[in-house]
Amino acid sequence: LAGNRATRLFRFKMSSPYNGNKGRRRGPTQKPSLEGMFDESNDDAGDRWSKNPSRPLVGASEQHKRIVTMPFPTYQNGIYDFQARCPAEVKAKFDQLNSFSGKEHTAQLEQIVKKHTPEYEKFNFNVLRNALGHLPDASRSQYFDRIFPGIVSLAKDLPGKLSHRPLVFLTPGVTLELRRDEIACLLANAYLCTFPYRDLFTSTLPTVNFITLFSGQPGKDKRESAKVEKLKCLFAYFSKAMEFGPEGEEKVSFSKVALNVKPDWENSQKPMKTFNIEELEGKIEDFEGIQVDFANKLIGGGVIGRGCQQEEIRFITCPELIAARLFTEQLEDNEALVITNFWQYSDHSGYQDDFKYEGPFTGSNNVKRTLVAIDASDFSNTNDSKLEGLWLQSEDHTSRQYLKQVIDRDLNKAYTGFLCQELDQSLHIATGNWGGGSFKGDPLLKAMIQHVAASEAERELHYYPYHDISLKEMLEGSALATRSKGTVGEAYHELLNYAKEKNPYPSAF
């Protein structure tokens, strides 16, 4: 892998030198336009860029600082300046944003993206074409006449919106606030695939550009059809974002929190809180409190790909959440992500292959939503795995979840998100089958883990079975999962006893 990355870096050093540019000076109140921003004339201002022609692969700045590489010229500190030098492909992409016209824009976009980002050559734009082809005539005309030109306009506005500060990677204890209109400009650039390429094999950051959503084979795979529905959600978002008034100045906050001191689970004397099982038709997103995101380590999971589970659906119906992928590195075992004051823009129905866009959001956004992203242990890997020196030679790796060290890991992870001292202590937690589904977790075990963690954080838990009547009945029939008496320490020991009974490797416990 290291050798492949070195080969790519060498290739980029040889083929992608930074070009010079000389911008025209403007008055202090005049907004810089894209014309003139990328003049190719060679001058001495910014020669330092030509001394380091290699293009960043992982989304970090050229100076290896913790700053997101933007698709417009910046100096070493990450601040925008129209006289700064930039990679040739950045200049070319931005210059050609003005060339899009009418119904031929998809072919133009594909040509530009592939020309200036060779890594995308293997992708097609079939899903985007299919989505546009299946829109009603009126909606299709609205897309070509209004929505897509609006996306281009938002993308070109990004330098002006974020000219005053760099976009830094999140670190524990630091909150990043972005205005809604700033996020719209960031997502418009992601739609047009102008951000520098991120290699998933060498990066701890998720991908950003939407090309993975555009590409596929619709009609051959139900999950590809779900991609079409995701694009409809994005169309609804951009349609609304173009009309932002004063609400565009409202801020969405992103915070990474970390657990430095682990609870003493065995000896905790904190009382167990109430475990509330909600009705089958209830939804986590309708709960006024802390909403749990069943997260992937790389935040957002497959939201701009084939994924269509709880996290992906939440992110695509609330696209402001997708912005977190720009600056949130892979979550560590003691970390969680907290996002507040985001809006929902689409209604939906179904799940996974049956996911459907059901029109613009009809509910109210006059609420302050709080999302806590925590990633459960993943037991979907069918290869032999090693965990703290213990080899389990089994095709069913779900058995690993009953090991004490794994249970402790998920307890600490859930507790990290549930505690979040920045949040109002009176807020309750809305969750569900966290770590189930594709992660293959035992629903009852995960429910118990969340209940114990929430009680240690001194918050009540509201559990949403989401139309799964068998899960609801199992929880209702389990005194262990629903107990509200005793202490956290006592419940923890009962949790370990349950795990010992389920574990096929008792000697390894």
TrEMBL record:
Q: Which GO terms describe its cellular component?
A: cytoplasm; nucleus
For biological process, the GO terms are: ATP generation from poly-ADP-D-ribose; carbohydrate metabolic process; nucleotide-sugar metabolic process; regulation of DNA repair
Q: Where does substrate bind?
A: N296, Q310, Y351
| Signal peptide annotation | none
- Segment Disordered: which positions? 12-62
Any idea of its EC number? 3.2.1.143
| Catalytic residue list | D293, E311, E312
Q: What is this protein called?
A: poly(ADP-ribose) glycohydrolase
Question: Which source organism does the UniProt entry give?
Answer: Cloeon dipterum
